[in-house]
Design goal:
TrmE/GcvT-like; alpha+beta
Length: 232
């Protein structure tokens, strides 16, 4: 008589927990390279990844009922035009197109396991109403779509100017400005968060390329700093 083997499938919640525990940021493999590339001093520059930020894709026509519903749920108004950003409710909203915006959470997750994106997208999306009476608009979780690099230091602008043709002069590109542009042929969102601090948001599939490009573009300033210190 053949032996009967009983197989018990893991509970769905357990599977989700295991998957979350294995979560890895798109540029995790570059952490050591980022640390080694840091340059100190007057021509200093540093780069780091800010992984797992909650990002919500928002589609709504400004001034519409859908826009008003989303603004109320987010606690921030939609940006009014190209390059503009608005803040509120724990989010910064970046203008992407006439009726397209990206809401980026202000706070970083406490761990890689934490994933607020789906719940936040559902919460904000519910503000549009029920089927049949729903206001025009859409909210989707895009947290896994892009990662975030933060480039900072006195030489951060010079690094970006090597790969971006847009005019980034401080008179034109002020703190709080965010644009869709191209860095070394890769589409990215570029957001100036401080006088010498920028966030670069590439799609996850381009994270390794963009991260390595930034490290390579920073090398010049390490050499310049060593020469200034009398190192030959």
């Amino acid at each position: 008589m053949a032996e009967t083997i009983e197989v018990t499938a893991p509970a769905p919640t357990a599977l989700r927990g295991d998957a979350a525990a294995l979560r890895r940021s798109p540029a995790a493999q570059l952490a050591d390279a980022f640390a080694a590339a840091t340059v100190q001093g007057e021509r200093g520059v540093a780069v780091r990844e800010i992984p797992f930020l909650t990002q919500l894709g928002v589609r709504a026509v400004p001034g519409s009922a859908g826009a008003a519903a989303v603004e109320s749920a987010l606690g921030a108004s939609l940006p009014s035009g190209h390059g503009r950003t608005t803040t509120g409710g724990g989010y910064t909203l970046l203008w992407v197109g006439p009726d397209e915006f990206l809401a980026v959470a202000d706070e970083t997750p406490t761990s890689a396991v934490e994933d607020r994106g789906p719940a936040e997208a559902a919460r904000v999306g519910d503000a549009l109403g029920e089927a049949g009476t729903r206001a025009a608009g859409a909210v989707v979780d895009l947290s896994a779509n892009r990662t975030t690099f933060e480039l900072s230091g006195p030489s951060a602008l010079a690094v970006l100017e090597k790969g971006i043709s847009y005019d980034l002069h401080p008179r034109r590109f002020e703190v709080g400005t965010a644009i869709a542009t191209v860095l070394d042929h890769v589409p990215v969102l570029l957001w100036k968060t401080g006088e010498d601090t920028y966030r670069v948001l590439p799609r996850a599939s381009f994270a390794d390329h963009v991260g390595r490009w930034l490290v390579d573009a920073m090398r010049e300033f390490a050499v310049s700093g060593a020469a200034a210190a009398g190192v030959r």
